Amino acid sequence: MEISKCCLLLLVASSLYYIVCSTTVSHDGRALVIDGQRRVIFSGSIHYPRSTPEMWPDLIRKSKEGGLDAIETYVFWNGHEPRRREVVYNFEGNYDLIRFLKEVQNAGLYAILRIGPYDEMQNFTTLIVDKVKEERLLATQGGPIILLQIENEYGNGDIEIQYGEAGHRYINWCANMAESLVSDVPWIMCQQSDAPQPMINTCNGFSGCDAFTPNNGNSPKIWTENWTGSFKNWGSPHPHRPVEEVAFQVARFFQSNGTVQNYYMYHGGTNFGRTSGGPYIATSYDYDAPLDEYGNIRQPKWGHLKELHASVKLMEKALTYGEVVEDHLGNGLTITKFSGDGIVPGCFLSNQNSTVDATISFQGTKYFLPAWSVSILPDCKKEVYNTAKVKTQTSIMVKKKDNAGDQSKDLRWSWKPERLHDSAKGFGNSFTVNKLLEQKTTTVDASDYLWYTTNKGEELMLPLHLLLKTTFEAPLGSEPVVVDLLGLGKGEAWVNGNSLGRFWPNITANPDGCKQCDYRGNFQANKCQTACGEASQRWYHVPRSFLKRGEPNTVTLFEEAGGDPNQVNFQTVTVGTACTSAGEGDVLSLSCQGGRTISSVDFATFGEPDGACGAYVSGGCGSDEAVAILKDACLGRDSCSIKISDKMGTSCAKLASPRKLVVQVTCS
């Protein structure tokens, strides 16, 4: 996808001159208008501080391959201005916002930049806009940025309400301030029903954005945060959101005249250092996103959504220019047709009943709609996609022992007591005060540790802890690296001076709350959970860029709760097992990741087998022909695709057509 009309390269007197034609961005009540054309936009959130610069190109590439048009990110004031009003800004390392935006541009994607909220709203917003303009990153300058955001969810709940009229005046002030800085790229305000023009108010949430209506007829319908999962909490199970539910809500949004949709998150990443992102939020910010915390493709979520994007894009012209006709059939069944002169019509068939499947007769053809699903017919004839019919492979990720040795036995730990004598500004180790002190000010926001004990007054205590240290060899290969900290108590970890974040493996998740997951019906963060009764976070990401090859690496642990480091070990994360299914006439595709190849075909049967991916045992009709063909096409390769023909099921001829082949392979 090109993000500008033209880019002319001239060679004059041995010097290179670039003339980049600007991209015009506007909007009407139907869609964003880019270079004069209404567009459907799929976007995904990647927060640059929650990964490393070395990871950015790969994350952005996988996002583009997944069918995204744009990357969305917040701008992190806490990281860019670590000391308020000291005017010492940080735009280096994983806070290099400009480099991140240029990586997005280099990939040929658009960018959505969410600025605010900040205590120093005008000062910092102006700083960011000036930096962006200086690097010519606005779309109208030939850059990738097609939308800007000011403030964030101020109108959500009772935040604005408690300020009364002053809150409303503040929102108007924000809008005027933002428009004074940039007037040729649209601004949005999410969860802000009273956003003044020309601000576009937008929707956030798991669901409900299909029914959302902007507050002005000239504003397109935008979903800024479609939560692909949720954040992990210390002491809570792991939240998940099935891809069938995500896809259902996305399809319903576009069926209901939506035209810009963003996944929050597309890659969640890691809360490095002391940047947890909120009270009791764990170090992992995985978010059950299409790209996992380490940057691996999460299947089937990534692939099923990729197919959704392609299906919707086939009817982009109809969605943005066609007239809309809806036919409500009752019991949650709806047919929506987008059509017009000179436009190939596009249709959605939806079943919003959460328990009852249905068959719809439409234009002389019958279509089967599972409960809580949407079918997409880009020509109003052939179904090319259904949100509940997942055809993408399922990948089971495994952690493999470090091939540099069994380091849990080889690691030799040294330790020393660690006093936080430098963390209390101007006070020393301990002191007596007659009042409560503000945490961040007293510790210069350099420590989590500040306790009070009462003894004839209040004495602030910064107690003794342990600093543990050892060296290790970097795991071989290119697969993501994690460190297993089970056995430790609570504290913070570093590798070669780079903070991995806080650790707390000895706090376990509530044993209750993990039950059979049914994606159908209204979704909440606790609906589909795993890891009940287990450590709320055991594994911690060690980005490859933190490691040194061929020389010792140092891991340092600040332990405050008396844990045992003897179980600490490093492992890599990769696809261990892949499963998929396809009907006769369809193409069956399988792939590994991280340089792994398909080493065995474990299971191939026509019909419905017993068990689940990774644990298929029997059922259906085993096909020797299918196994032989799969071995020939797939073994030793990182990916393979074959068309399912009737020849593959000769030994299963007794099964009625159409038959479905279920396959499981091992990657190693």
UniProtKB/TrEMBL annotation:
<dbReference type="InterPro" id="IPR031330">
    <property type="entry name" value="Gly_Hdrlase_35_cat"/>
</dbReference>
<keyword id="KW-0732">Signal</keyword>
<dbReference type="InterPro" id="IPR019801">
    <property type="entry name" value="Glyco_hydro_35_CS"/>
</dbReference>
<dbReference type="InterPro" id="IPR008979">
    <property type="entry name" value="Galactose-bd-like_sf"/>
</dbReference>
<keyword id="KW-0326">Glycosidase</keyword>
<protein>
    <recommendedName>
        <fullName>Beta-galactosidase</fullName>
        <ecNumber>3.2.1.23</ecNumber>
    </recommendedName>
</protein>
<dbReference type="InterPro" id="IPR017853">
    <property type="entry name" value="GH"/>
</dbReference>
<dbReference type="InterPro" id="IPR041392">
    <property type="entry name" value="GHD"/>
</dbReference>
<keyword id="KW-0964">Secreted</keyword>
<dbReference type="GO" id="GO:0030246">
    <property type="term" value="F:carbohydrate binding"/>
</dbReference>
<comment type="similarity">
    <text>Belongs to the glycosyl hydrolase 35 family.</text>
</comment>
<dbReference type="InterPro" id="IPR043159">
    <property type="entry name" value="Lectin_gal-bd_sf"/>
</dbReference>
<dbReference type="Pfam" id="PF21467">
    <property type="entry name" value="BetaGal_gal-bd"/>
</dbReference>
<dbReference type="InterPro" id="IPR000922">
    <property type="entry name" value="Lectin_gal-bd_dom"/>
</dbReference>
<dbReference type="Pfam" id="PF01301">
    <property type="entry name" value="Glyco_hydro_35"/>
</dbReference>
<feature type="domain" description="SUEL-type lectin">
    <location>
        <begin position="582"/>
        <end position="668"/>
    </location>
</feature>
<dbReference type="InterPro" id="IPR048913">
    <property type="entry name" value="BetaGal_gal-bd"/>
</dbReference>
<dbReference type="Pfam" id="PF02140">
    <property type="entry name" value="SUEL_Lectin"/>
</dbReference>
<dbReference type="InterPro" id="IPR001944">
    <property type="entry name" value="Glycoside_Hdrlase_35"/>
</dbReference>
<dbReference type="Pfam" id="PF17834">
    <property type="entry name" value="GHD"/>
</dbReference>
<keyword id="KW-0378">Hydrolase</keyword>
<keyword id="KW-0052">Apoplast</keyword>
<feature type="signal peptide">
    <location>
        <begin position="1"/>
        <end position="22"/>
    </location>
</feature>
<dbReference type="GO" id="GO:0005975">
    <property type="term" value="P:carbohydrate metabolic process"/>
</dbReference>
<dbReference type="GO" id="GO:0048046">
    <property type="term" value="C:apoplast"/>
</dbReference>
<dbReference type="GO" id="GO:0004565">
    <property type="term" value="F:beta-galactosidase activity"/>
</dbReference>
